[in-house]
Amino acid sequence: MSQPGRTRGKLHLSNLYSFSCFRPDVLQSDSQHSLQGPGFSRVVYCNQPRLHRKKPLKYPTNYISTTKYNIITFLPKAIFEQFRRVANIYFLMAAILSLTPVSPFSPVSMIAPLAFVIGLSMAKEALEDWRRFMQDMEVNSRKINVHKGDGVFSYRAWQKIRVGDVVKVEKDRFFPADLLLLSSSYDDGICYVETMNLDGETNLKVKRSLEVTLSLEEDAAFSDFTGTIRCEDPNPTLYTFVGNLEFERQVYALDPNQILLRDSKLRNTPYVYGVVIFTGHDTKVMQNSTKSPSKRSSIEKKLDSIIYVLFTLLVLISLISSIGFAVKIKIGMPDWWYMQPEDTTNMYDPQKPETAGILHLITALILYGYLIPISLYVSIELVKVLQAMFINKDLHMYDEESGNPAQARTSNLNEDLGQVDTILSDKTGTLTCNQMDFLKCSIAGISYGVVSSEVEMAAAKQLAFDLNGQVSGASTPMHSRPQYLSENRGSDFGKSEIELETIITPTSERQRHMIKGFSFEDSRLMDGNWLKEPDANVILLFFRILAVCHTAIPEPNEETQSFNYEAESPDEASFLVAARELGFEFCKRTQSSVFIRERYSSSGNFIEREFKILNLLEFSSKRKRMSVIVRDEDGRIFLMCKGADSIILDRLSKSGRMYEEETTRHLTEYGEAGLRTLALSYKELEESEYHAWNNEFQKAKTTLGSEREALLERASDMIEKDLILVGATAVEDKLQKGVPQCIDKLAQAGLKIWVLTGDKMETAINIGFACSLLRQGMKQICITTTESDILAQNAHKAVKENILMQITNASQMVKLEKDPHAAFALIIDGKTLSYALEDDTKNLFLSLAVGCASVICCRVSPKQKALVTRLVKEGTGKLTLAIGDGANDVGMIQEADIGIGISGVEGMQAVMASDFSISQFRFLERLLVVHGHWCYKRIAQMVCYFFYKNIAFGLTLLYFEAYAGFSGQAVYDDWYMTLFNVILTSLPVISLGVFEQDVSSEVCLQFPALYQQGPKNLFFDWYRILGWMANGVYSSLIIFFLNIHIFCEQAFRSGGQTADMAAVGTTMFTSIIWTVSLQIALTMSHFTWIQHLFVWGSISTWYIFLLLYGLASPLVSGNAYHILLEALAPAPIYWSATLLVTIACNIPYLAHVSFQRAVNPMDHHVIQEIKYFKIDVEDRRMWTRERSKARQKTKIGFTARVDAKIRQLRGRLHKKQAGAQNVASPR
């Protein structure tokens, strides 16, 4: 009896194996765990949290922080992060040296830009960290019911929970810390926990408390509760726990089944009580929160190399300038009487030219520092953030069903999206929906279910299309060709197509009544018609096994007046839905029974039957089966078992193999259709047989120590044999919408696609056919281990040699293949892969895999996924992209150059570890082919242009140095140089990086081959980089020498005076602004009003600044006082020189582009001209022909299937024509 005032759940499952066999007993004195020494020092005093605030305990609070900085560490850490960049270190040194007398500039002109750039970058870091801080505060501020004394509970923030606190967690709430479960609302202290945030699994886990704490069943019971927990120290292992509870002078062993981990959620249980063991960063989930690996884009890595090249150039120029200065001082200084050489400093002492040269080196390093753009990094960061915003806001990647948009979780890798070579994808939940639909079944050797799987539908559509021979309109959608039959077809063809159409077309009734988890359709079983079948008793048993053999919990659904099921797997839930729809509804679970409502006809009333659960042998990945032992209402005892077909078939009795041959054939057919299968079996137990076994089982349950698991497994094997086969089930894990089309487009874009899945080989192969990764005619290379090798005396060596031989033979076959259209698919399982990934084999394996059109790795572990990804990344040296949706994909996602998380039903672990997240696989096409292409070209052009403009500007200082005796005198005003990178030329280059489009998004999707410009690195190779640098050198020569030549001897003012240094310098600077602005305008292919505003606005800003600067006091403006109004604006030579220099600087670029477009145009040049002259509208045939040419030759995807069929038909036609010519030719 429960105590008054306590509402207890009616569920009692203590007699079930899965719930009770792990319940520990009291530790005997001779087997008590001392739990002392390293790793086992934690002591928790239950219900006494204040004891843990003092040393030596002093455990951390429950406050958690995932931020990178705090108030104290922000400045030092953020500054350190900024000065990890080589360029920023240089500018810091230059700013410090600007405080010395040898600096050519005022300190403000050097310090201000550096402070602006560093400050902006730090502000971005602070903003991102502030967002993390706010997320942390949201979690830390959640409320939980905590015992505050005398049996009274009150709500308190998570962050104020301490070790030893007793908390009460209610249904659908997260656990605030790692807890020891004391009791629950159910009589036997079980509760259901969802661990989706920990391991990505949606199935519920069962936890149970110790029997000794079941009496703590209401708030008042905790008024005098005390106890001591001695356990392991904080560690990241989620699935282990070692500890003891000392309670009421007894010691009880603890294991993971009593531990509730932080961030898991209480489900299907009104409430639980628990005591806090680990808090804050000691909790297992926080111990597992590793920092994501630091990823840098390929362009950013190459940027460092360019900076080093420019820095080397800077040092070289500075050395030349310093040597020139030292020579001038030694030779010329004695003759310059006006410089008073006999009374001067070390800087100009002709007796110490070496000292003068060294001091001038410092001056030169500062003066020519404009070769390295100070605002490059901050501009790139700003551009990437804005690019990420456009990705996040793209409505074409918004999933209306889930409400999830695409999300760029980091902006550092935007341009890498446009350079991917290989995609490594998970299958379940990524290519498929992770939604299981009961589709077919085999009962008593008869197959039921007429609805086709998506794999069968795709194959049927493709075959019907091939039979029609409609090769000319291959791009026409299937729905536009409803007529499958040709008038001149033979009877065989017509028959095939009629059958296909029957298979594909679902009935209208099915379309009207869509039930989640149930797509089965067969009138022989539905509406009670199964009673008319010859083996009705076997069918009855089949339905009962579906309804009874499980661990699910029913939840009433008021809307449908039926039940929803919380099951440990989607497969199990689909079985229960199928049983319900076929008349066997699981409706209630009580203390030791399950109740089934059986309905034998559509109009008849249901009969509620009770099955008493005697034992339950739970499913595990090792066992690959589960069994339940029940007693029916007639007192008979049955063992009902379901599991993998390979396991069940091995455990059948001789008399139980009546339907084995037919069922095995059906299982093969289901596997070929891409369905997941399980076999169902049973046996009836005699009373004496059961009791004898149960005694052995109870002994195994009560055994303590390492032998316990082995004894339990042995006991299970004893009873799970001599079974009778009943049938098999087939459920479909549906393909996500648009997956085949997306894969086809990515293949046309030249991307290689690997599938890494934990599913068995048959299922993976069938999904490969459904996705068009595999096709008929493709040669499959299956590398597997043989049973004889495993049983050999030296098993490892034998298996290794066999695999090595298979890889070598396959590689030889691929190399010797002379047919250019031949395609190979490599298929390998996890066991074989473990050998193939060893150091002496992996390179051979990779070489074979790269030579194949598609690669499918099945039965692979999460670690193997990461190892394969690393092998491809390091072995090929090309960019890899990994995409997955579950916790088992995290390693792969973090290992790849780019990680994509699918925000699906398997939790958020993959998304949290990813660089980008999307809600459907099909959005990957737009993310790469559109945004990836744009981002790569934008960043590449932006960086090249940055170096161009800075070289064009910086080298003019060197030329003037030569004219000024290498004195360190700058031709420009300090403020001109300060504003050049920061204000005057920054916005146009940002607009180039954000808005530039060589072609529209529609054209990117129509011409996927354009994507290959990224992987081939056509826009950021050394040829293009050096070309832009050469353009900068040319422009600097024209700007300087043409202006000097114009102003040298020409009258500048109306009075005949020539120009001074301020006028010449300002004119040169005006020419630079016009030249680089016009250059970026010529570079852009796509203009918006923003780009027009920024480009022409930058020129206008220069004139406005010059006007206002000249109007300032001479103390501020110096030699630039009224320079625009009184000196430059009235002088025609100023305007004409600016125009002439600007045109001269940009003529070579125009000539180069014109020549390239006319003689050797790139793909996007051709498309741009077609679009500009509207040829795509006026000549559709030509447009279609160009589209067909603008795709990479691929051997996978729907297009490859069509191409293969075209070649086949052409071959037939050629043979037919050759035969006709032979007949017509005279003998």
Automatic annotation (TrEMBL):
Main localization, broad class: membrane
For the P-type ATPase N-terminal domain, which residue ranges apply? 44-111
Q: Which residues bind Mg(2+)?
A: D426, T428, D885, D889
The highest taxon in the source lineage is Eukaryota
What does this protein need as cofactor?
Mg(2+)
CDD domains (UniProt xref): P-type_ATPase_APLT_Dnf-like
EC number annotated for this UniProt entry:
7.6.2.1
Membrane topology, as annotated, equals: Multi-pass membrane protein
* Single GO MF annotation: ATP hydrolysis activity
The record's subcellular location field reads: Membrane
Q: Where is the active site?
A: D426 (4-aspartylphosphate intermediate)
Which spans are transmembrane here? 86-104, 110-127, 305-327, 357-380, 946-963, 975-995, 1025-1047, 1059-1081, 1093-1112, 1132-1151
Reaction it catalyzes: ATP + H2O + phospholipidSide 1 = ADP + phosphate + phospholipidSide 2
The biological processes this protein is annotated with in GO are: phospholipid translocation
Keyword Repeat found? no
Residues reported to bind ATP:
D426, K427, T428, E572, F619, K642, R676, T757, G758, D759, R859, K865, N888, D889
Where does the P-type ATPase C-terminal domain lie?
Answer: 911-1161
PANTHER family, per the entry: PHOSPHOLIPID-TRANSPORTING ATPASE, PROBABLE PHOSPHOLIPID-TRANSPORTING ATPASE
Protein name according to UniProt? Phospholipid-transporting ATPase
